[in-house]
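quick one if you have a minute, typing this from the bus. below you get a single protein, a line of residues and a line of whole numbers that encode the local backbone shape. could you go over both lines and see whether the tokens make sense for that sequence. anything you notice is useful, everything is just below.
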Amino acid sequence: MNKAKITGILLAGGESRRFGSHKAFAKLHHKYFYEYAIEALEGNVDELLIVSHPALEGQFRNQTTVEVLLDVPEYKGNGPLAGIFTAMQKQSSDWYVILPCDTPLVSDELVKQLITFTKEEGIDAVVPIINNRQQPLIAVYHSRVVKKIEQLLNEKNLKMSLLLDRCNVKFVKNHDLRRHESEFENINNQTEYEKIQQKPMTDISNQD
């Protein structure tokens, strides 16, 4: 059986209104947030794409060799579903690993573990549940969900939870992943940013 082709998608198209500036280019321990996501993805995927906000497109192109996309025009600005759809339309793959740009503690090992669950038959998506919260933007989706995403976009139903409702989802909990819950912390405001800056990166290493 042929090895499944996997594409990594870094979602960096949000407005970051609560944060006050674009989170992708916030720094933690001398690296940009987006660089942590790329490092977590690149060793686990065959292709890698960034879906960007127009205001960030030039900066990404100047700082990384990863291909940068903007939302397809008909769904421009329609949130994560638009970004995922755009990347799926651009790059044909069997599976797509999604990461946001505001979870800088996410690891290569977490991505690797999520991918292992895709071997189960009939699974449309692999989605963690951490502290009773679904994490649909740190997840893996099969290519067949693109039609469901397009339907939701056309209906203007833009919540990720609505996509999960229409998919056969393999939900995995922290005991399945054996990862530190801080890997799933997304940074929404300056208070959270200040808190994470005080946390040594070693806090999440060697959690296997």
